[in-house]
Amino acid sequence: MENDSAPIVEARSLRKDYGPTRAVEDISFKVSRGEVVGFLGPNGAGKSTTMKMLTGYLRPTSGSALVAGIDVAQDPLAAKRLIGYLPENAPLYDEMMVVDFLNFVADMRGVNGPERQKRLREIGGRCGLMDVLGKNIGQLSKGYRQRVGLAQAMVHDPDLLILDEPTSGLDPNQIVEIRELIKELGREKTVILSTHILPEVQASCGRIIIINKGKLVADDTPEVLTGAEGRAVVRLVVKASNGTPLSESDVRGALTSVPGVVAVERTDGEGDGTLGFRIRAAGALDPREGIFRAAMQGNFVLLDLHRERVSLEDTFRQLTLGQGGSHA
Q1: For the chain, which domains are there?
Q2: Which of 19, 82, 119, 133 is 20 to 30 A from 159 (CA-CA)?
Q3: In 3D, which of 41, 45, 52, 44 has the Cα closest to residue 11?
Q4: What is the pLDDT of residues 11-45, one digit of tens each?
Q5: How far is CA 134 from the centre of its chain?
Q6: Reduced to 3 states, what is the DSSP secondary structure of residue 286?
């Protein structure tokens, strides 16, 4: 009997070496049932290698990958029954009609009996393939080929979908269509999604894992990674209340004393007689109320005060260009 509280995916100190090159180094994480997880990293970071180890297509040099408690290396067939996998370059047979290919996949997946045609009709409808079932796959656009790739991953109704760059090479309209389909699937499946389109991850994933140079560097919610939850960043511009020149050290001291403020950086003001600052706050405390009080007590006027939202792209660049530490 399945334990719904147990993670559906668990990576335990996964490592993969290609000769002298270490592609993945001691990566560990868990994914619970029903999560939609974005799996990010720059080119060459080890994303696809990690996904291939999770799905059993690559054996790790050390460590283990478990799906619903099943060690993928020790019992790959049992694990793969629970996984739907769309690799970055989906292996499709161009000379086969879509309907024949899906029936072929159903054969391979053991989907037989009266349920097969019902399942194929359902998948064909959900993936928008009903109008092209009689066409050869080689005649299809990139967008429709990706739909066929998604359909083959879903034929056996898996608990877990692992999708590697599912919108790669698509035009903007096709990206929106595939994104909506993935969001719909995320309401009923566990999804691990790798993509370079960061706004897509931010919009559809409840959790983000980032790896760089084979190592895990972040594992948290989009809200935490972008500063919307904790680690607030506030920008402000001030001027003197009585027309006398401002003392930067006095203003900086007043701002530093605000509860929760951990850093005060000087930025551009708005002309003569003004000073600009960028403030970082720790935890979930919003420092703006304290800044208002500090301004009244310090006899300076706030010309501008707003909380800044750090983009996921900013966080990604900081973590993968070696400017930040681990959020795991």
Answers
A1: 9-225 (3.40.50.300), 233-308 (3.30.70.1340)
A2: 133
A3: 52
A4: 999 999 999 999 999 999 999 999 999 999 998 89
A5: 35
A6: coil
Under a CB-based contact definition with an 8 Å cutoff, are residues 30 and 9 in contact?
yes
pLDDT tens sequence across 236-265: 999 998 877 888 999 999 999 999 888 899
Q: Sort strands 190-194 and 160-164 into parallel, antiparallel or unpaired.
A: parallel
Predicted local distance difference test score (pLDDT) of residue 227? 63
Q: Using one digit for the tens of pLDDT, what is the confidence trace for 58-84?
A: 999 999 999 999 999 999 999 999 999
Single-letter amino acid, residue 138: G
Local structure of 75: helix, strand or coil: coil
